[in-house]
Amino acid sequence: MKEIRFIKGSVFEDARGKLSYNNTFNASEIKRIYTIEHSTTNIIRGWQGHKIEQRWFSVMKGSFEIQVIEIDNWDAPSKILEPSIFKISDKSLDFLQVPSGFITRIQALELDSKLLVLADYLIGEIQDEYRFDLEYFS
């Protein structure tokens, strides 16, 4: 069974300012990066995910709630699958690693929040995007 990983970052602060870092995050698999910024905190992006691809999420500004579900059947997933819920913020350079086989639901918790997303495949390299209605899972 694959596991969702929360990779804790750290912050060093002195008179010069603040340095956020994550010395345990391994970026060797990353092929693509992008950011997500919602226009309001009412916007919910999801449910979407990947059988093969994996994602890493880190908050650049503000905070986000990311719900994650492991899919049991990609053609007709059980509607009673329970999400794991993560709240991440820009307080340190934390990463949420979502392995292949999972879908996510993402919502900004503060206005002007910005989420960094890292992927291990390039656009068009494989066809691996799955989407489900927000109300699909009860």
Write the layout of secondary structure elements.
Blueprint: E1 5-7, E2 10-14, E3 17-21, E4 32-36, E5 45-50, E6 55-61, E7 63-70, E8 84-89, E9 95-98, E10 102-108, E11 114-119, E12 130-131
Antiparallel strand pairs: 1-9, 2-3, 4-11, 5-10, 5-12, 6-9, 6-11, 7-8, 7-10
Class, according to the CATH hierarchy?
Answer: Mainly Beta
Could you report the average pLDDT, rounded to the nearest whole number? Answer: 96
CATH topology: Jelly Rolls
Unreliable runs:
none
Oligomer: single chain
Count of individual helical segments: 0
Distance between the termini: 23 Å
Structural write-up:
The protein is mostly beta strands. The chain has a single domain, classed as Jelly Rolls (Sandwich), CATH 2.60.120.10. It contains no helices and twelve strands. Strands 1-9-6-11-4 form a five-stranded antiparallel sheet, with no helix packed on it. Strands 8-7-10-5-12 form a five-stranded antiparallel sheet, with no helix packed on it. The radius of gyration is 15 Å and the shape is globular.
